[in-house]
C-alpha cells in the first residue's frame, strides 16, 4: 500500500515538472545578461526587462491590445449580460440551440474563426483594422462572458426578483437594483477571464492585424522571428505574473470550479 | 362587501388547467388560509392575487375595481416567500427600507417607519447585519417586516414557515397572528399544514384539484366537513357509503348491508346528497365481544386484524362485514390480533358528507 502511494507521488511530481518546468526555465533565462537566450544563464541582469520598455513596437502594440480588449470586453458585457440573464431566467423554444450558438466560438478552431473574420470583416466589408479587431475580439469574448455570468446566475434565487417587484420596483429597476448587485462578482470574473482570452489571443488577431496596427502577442511573434535575445522571455514572465494575478482574483470571487465544470 | 373577489378565474399551464372557473371572496381584515395537498392550486391562487401570474380568463376585483391587468409593482400587496427572498446584498435596514425608498419616502420617515416595523417583529438592533448572518426565523421576520413597512392593502404568505423547525414554527405562527390582529391587515395564507392553518385563520378554504371544497371557520371545518375529500384531509379516516337514508325528527337513520346507523341531525347533514358517513379513528369505540347491545344500530361485529402502537394509544384495523375501520384507543391491556370485538359508532360523532 505504502509502495503504491510513493509511486503515485513520483508520478504527480513528474507531471508537475512537465507542466511547470518550461515556465521555470523561461523565467530563469529572462535574467540572462548576454544577448542570446540560454539555459542555464551565465550572468544575471534585468536589462531585458528594461528593453521591453525601450522597444517602440511593444509599447504601441500593448496599447492596441489593451484598447481592443477593454472595448471588446465592454461590448461583450452589454450583449452577454442580457443573454445570460434570458438563458437562466426564462424557458423558451430553441433555448438549447441558442446556448450552443453562444458557446460555439469556444468550440470552433480559432484558425477557422480567424479566417472567416478575414474573409468577411476585412476582404468583403473593408472594415478598418481597429474596427475589425474590435468586432473579432468581442465575438471571442462573448461566450466566456455568457458562461461565467450564467454560472453566477445559476445560484441566484429569482424569487428575490419577485420580492423586489412586489415591493414596487419596475422590471428594469429590479434588474439594476437587485439582479446586478448580486452577480457583481460573476461580472468581475467574466471581465477578467474574457480579458485574458482576448489579450493573449493569437489565432484570430493574426488574420485581423495589418500594416501599422498589431496586437501585443502578434508583435511578440514578429520580434521572435528577427531577434533571439531574452526580451521575449522577460515579457513571458510578466504575462505569467499578470495572468496569475487575474486568476487569483477570479478564484477569490467565484472559485476555479468554473473551469472544471466545463 | 368583500374587499376582493376572484371571479371565474381560469389558469392553465402547458394546456393543463390548474384553476377553472375559480371563485373566492375575502372580507376586509380577515385572515384566510388556503389549505390543501400539493398540486391543488393554492399557490397558483396566491400568485394570481399577487399579480405574479396572469389568468387566462376571469376577473380579479379589489374594492370593486378591476385589478386583473394591474402589474405587481402597482398593487401595493405585501408578499412573504417560503424561502424568505431577502436581498443578500443589502443590510436588514436596507432590506426593510427597499419598498419605502421606491415610494420616495423622506429619509427621516424611512428611519422612523423601519424602526417601528422592526419593533413589531422584535428585530431592533439587527439593522446593520446582513441576511446571511441571521437564523431562519429571524430572516422570515425580516421578510415580514419588509412586506409590512409599505402598509400593504393585502398581506400574502406562501408557506412561510415550512423551512423552519417545529418549535420555531409554532412560535412564528403565533407571532404572525399577533401582528395581523394588531394591524388589522387582510391576509391570505397558503400552507399544506392543517394545524398551522387552523391555529391562525379566521377562515380556511380547503382546496382540491383547483376548486375550493369548503370555505368556513376552522371549527366548522373540523367538526362538520362538507365533502369526503375535506373529511379525509382533516383526519376522518373511516367512511361508510350508505344505501338508504331516512330523516326523522331528531335524527337521521341510515343503513348499509342490513346494518342500521343513527346520526344526530344538524343543519348541515340533512342536505340530500350527503350519504357518506365519516368518523375519526379516535371516536370509534371497541368493546369486548358480547351480544350486540343495541341491535337497532351503530354497532358492528368485528375482528382485530392489525395492531400498531402509537405511544399514547394503540391503533387497530378492525375487519367488519362492511369493510375495514381504523380505530385509535387507549387501553392498558390491549386487544390482540384475532380478537372478536364489537365496534361502536357513537351517534353524535359521525358526520355525513357528500
Automatic annotation (TrEMBL), chain A:
<dbReference type="InterPro" id="IPR000515">
    <property type="entry name" value="MetI-like"/>
</dbReference>
<feature type="transmembrane region" description="Helical">
    <location>
        <begin position="127"/>
        <end position="146"/>
    </location>
</feature>
<keyword id="KW-0812">Transmembrane</keyword>
<dbReference type="GO" id="GO:0005524">
    <property type="term" value="F:ATP binding"/>
</dbReference>
<dbReference type="Pfam" id="PF00528">
    <property type="entry name" value="BPD_transp_1"/>
</dbReference>
<feature type="transmembrane region" description="Helical">
    <location>
        <begin position="175"/>
        <end position="196"/>
    </location>
</feature>
<dbReference type="GO" id="GO:0005886">
    <property type="term" value="C:plasma membrane"/>
</dbReference>
<feature type="domain" description="ABC transmembrane type-1">
    <location>
        <begin position="62"/>
        <end position="250"/>
    </location>
</feature>
<feature type="transmembrane region" description="Helical">
    <location>
        <begin position="232"/>
        <end position="254"/>
    </location>
</feature>
<keyword id="KW-0997">Cell inner membrane</keyword>
<dbReference type="GO" id="GO:0055085">
    <property type="term" value="P:transmembrane transport"/>
</dbReference>
<keyword id="KW-1133">Transmembrane helix</keyword>
<keyword id="KW-0813">Transport</keyword>
<comment type="similarity">
    <text>Belongs to the binding-protein-dependent transport system permease family.</text>
</comment>
<dbReference type="InterPro" id="IPR035906">
    <property type="entry name" value="MetI-like_sf"/>
</dbReference>
<keyword id="KW-0547">Nucleotide-binding</keyword>
<keyword id="KW-1003">Cell membrane</keyword>
<keyword id="KW-0472">Membrane</keyword>
<keyword id="KW-0067">ATP-binding</keyword>
<feature type="transmembrane region" description="Helical">
    <location>
        <begin position="66"/>
        <end position="85"/>
    </location>
</feature>
<protein>
    <submittedName>
        <fullName>Spermidine/putrescine ABC transporter ATP-binding protein</fullName>
    </submittedName>
</protein>
<feature type="transmembrane region" description="Helical">
    <location>
        <begin position="97"/>
        <end position="121"/>
    </location>
</feature>
UniProtKB/TrEMBL annotation, chain B:
<keyword id="KW-0067">ATP-binding</keyword>
<dbReference type="InterPro" id="IPR008995">
    <property type="entry name" value="Mo/tungstate-bd_C_term_dom"/>
</dbReference>
<dbReference type="GO" id="GO:0015418">
    <property type="term" value="F:ABC-type quaternary ammonium compound transporting activity"/>
</dbReference>
<keyword id="KW-0547">Nucleotide-binding</keyword>
<dbReference type="Pfam" id="PF08402">
    <property type="entry name" value="TOBE_2"/>
</dbReference>
<dbReference type="InterPro" id="IPR003593">
    <property type="entry name" value="AAA+_ATPase"/>
</dbReference>
<dbReference type="GO" id="GO:0005524">
    <property type="term" value="F:ATP binding"/>
</dbReference>
<dbReference type="InterPro" id="IPR003439">
    <property type="entry name" value="ABC_transporter-like_ATP-bd"/>
</dbReference>
<protein>
    <recommendedName>
        <fullName>Carnitine transport ATP-binding protein OpuCA</fullName>
        <ecNumber>7.6.2.9</ecNumber>
    </recommendedName>
</protein>
<dbReference type="InterPro" id="IPR017871">
    <property type="entry name" value="ABC_transporter-like_CS"/>
</dbReference>
<dbReference type="InterPro" id="IPR050093">
    <property type="entry name" value="ABC_SmlMolc_Importer"/>
</dbReference>
<dbReference type="Pfam" id="PF00005">
    <property type="entry name" value="ABC_tran"/>
</dbReference>
<dbReference type="GO" id="GO:0043190">
    <property type="term" value="C:ATP-binding cassette (ABC) transporter complex"/>
</dbReference>
<feature type="domain" description="ABC transporter">
    <location>
        <begin position="4"/>
        <end position="234"/>
    </location>
</feature>
<dbReference type="GO" id="GO:0016887">
    <property type="term" value="F:ATP hydrolysis activity"/>
</dbReference>
<keyword id="KW-0813">Transport</keyword>
<dbReference type="InterPro" id="IPR027417">
    <property type="entry name" value="P-loop_NTPase"/>
</dbReference>
<dbReference type="InterPro" id="IPR013611">
    <property type="entry name" value="Transp-assoc_OB_typ2"/>
</dbReference>
<comment type="subunit">
    <text>The complex is composed of two ATP-binding proteins (OpuCA), two transmembrane proteins (OpuCB and OpuCD) and a solute-binding protein (OpuCC).</text>
</comment>
Amino acid at each position: 500500500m505504502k509502495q503504491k502511494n510513493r509511486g503515485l507521488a513520483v508520478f504527480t511530481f513528474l507531471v508537475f515538472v512537465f507542466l511547470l518546468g518550461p515556465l521555470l526555465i523561461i523565467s530563469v533565462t529572462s535574467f540572462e545578461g548576454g544577448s542570446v537566450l540560454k539555459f542555464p544563464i551565465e550572468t544575471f541582469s534585468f536589462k531585458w526587462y528594461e528593453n521591453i520598455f525601450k522597444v517602440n513596437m511593444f509599447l504601441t502594440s500593448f496599447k492596441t491590445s489593451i484598447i481592443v480588449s477593454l472595448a471588446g470586453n465592454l461590448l461583450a458585457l452589454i450583449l452577454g449580460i442580457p443573454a445570460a440573464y434570458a438563458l437562466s431566467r426564462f424557458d423558451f423554444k430553441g433555448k438549447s440551440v441558442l446556448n450552443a450558438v453562444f458557446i460555439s466560438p469556444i468550440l470552433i478552431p480559432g484558425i477557422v474563426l480567424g479566417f472567416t473574420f478575414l474573409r468577411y470583416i476585412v476582404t468583403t466589408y473593408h472594415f478598418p483594422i481597429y474596427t475589425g479587431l474590435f468586432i473579432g475580439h468581442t465575438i471571442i469574448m462573448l461566450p466566456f462572458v455568457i458562461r461565467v455570468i450564467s454560472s453566477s446566475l445559476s445560484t441566484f434565487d429569482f424569487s428575490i426578483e419577485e420580492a423586489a417587484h412586489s415591493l414596487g420596483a419596475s422590471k428594469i429597476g429590479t434588474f439594476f437594483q437587485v439582479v446586478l448587485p448580486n452577480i457583481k462578482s460573476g461580472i468581475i470574473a467574466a471581465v477578467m477571464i474574457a480579458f485574458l482570452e482576448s489579450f493573449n489571443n493569437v489565432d484570430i488577431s493574426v488574420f485581423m492585424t495589418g500594416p501599422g496596427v498589431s496586437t501585443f502577442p502578434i508583435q511578440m511573434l514578429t520580434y521572435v522571428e528577427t531577434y533571439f535575445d531574452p526580451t521575449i522571455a522577460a515579457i513571458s514572465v510578466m504575462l505569467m505574473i499578470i495572468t496569475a494575478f487575474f486568476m487569483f482574483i477570479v478564484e477569490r470571487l467565484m472559485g476555479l470550479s468554473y473551469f472544471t465544470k466545463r | 362587501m368583500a374587499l376582493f373577489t376572484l371571479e371565474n378565474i381560469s389558469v392553465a399551464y402547458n394546456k393543463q388547467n390548474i384553476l377553472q372557473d375559480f371563485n373566492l371572496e375575502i372580507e376586509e381584515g380577515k385572515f384566510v388560509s388556503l389549505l390543501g395537498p400539493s398540486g391543488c392550486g393554492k399557490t397558483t391562487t396566491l400568485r394570481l392575487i399577487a399579480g405574479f401570474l396572469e389568468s387566462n380568463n376571469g376577473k380579479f376585483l379589489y374594492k370593486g375595481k378591476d385589478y386583473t391587468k394591474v402589474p405587481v409593482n402597482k398593487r401595493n400587496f405585501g408578499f412573504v416567500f417560503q424561502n424568505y427572498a431577502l436581498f443578500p446584498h443589502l443590510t436588514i435596514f436596507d432590506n426593510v427600507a427597499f419598498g419605502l425608498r421606491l415610494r420616495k419616502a423622506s429619509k427621516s420617515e424611512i428611519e422612523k417607519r423601519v424602526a417601528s416595523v422592526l419593533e413589531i417583529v422584535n428585530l431592533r438592533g439587527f439593522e446593520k447585519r446582513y441576511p446571511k448572518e441571521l437564523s431562519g426565523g429571524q430572516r422570515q421576520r425580516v421578510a415580514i417586516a419588509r412586506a409590512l413597512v409599505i402598509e400593504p392593502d393585502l398581506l400574502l404568505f406562501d408557506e412561510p414557515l415550512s423551512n423552519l423547525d417545529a418549535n420555531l414554527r409554532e412560535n412564528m405562527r403565533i407571532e404572525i397572528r399577533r401582528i395581523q390582529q394588531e394591524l388589522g391587515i387582510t391576509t391570505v395564507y397558503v400552507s399544506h399544514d392543517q394545524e398551522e392553518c387552523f391555529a391562525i385563520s379566521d377562515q380556511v378554504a380547503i382546496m382540491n384539484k383547483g376548486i375550493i371544497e369548503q370555505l368556513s371557520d376552522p371549527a366548522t371545518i373540523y367538526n362538520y366537513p362538507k365533502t369526503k375529500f375535506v373529511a379525509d384531509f382533516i383526519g376522518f379516516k373511516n367512511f361508510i357509503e350508505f344505501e338508504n337514508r331516512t330523516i326523522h325528527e331528531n335524527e337521521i337513520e341510515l343503513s348499509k348491508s342490513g346494518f342500521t346507523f343513527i346520526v344526530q341531525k344538524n343543519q348541515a347533514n340533512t342536505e340530500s346528497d350527503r350519504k357518506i358517513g365519516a368518523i375519526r379513528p379516535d371516536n370509534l369505540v371497541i368493546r369486548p365481544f358480547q351480544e350486540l347491545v343495541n341491535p337497532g344500530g351503530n354497532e358492528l361485529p368485528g375482528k382485530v386484524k392489525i395492531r400498531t402502537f402509537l405511544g399514547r394509544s394503540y391503533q387497530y384495523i378492525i375487519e367488519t362485514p362492511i369493510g375495514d375501520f381504523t380505530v385509535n384507543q387507549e387501553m392498558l391491556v390491549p386487544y390482540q390480533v384475532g380478537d372478536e370485538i364489537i365496534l361502536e359508532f357513537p351517534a353524535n360523532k359521525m358526520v355525513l358528507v357528500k
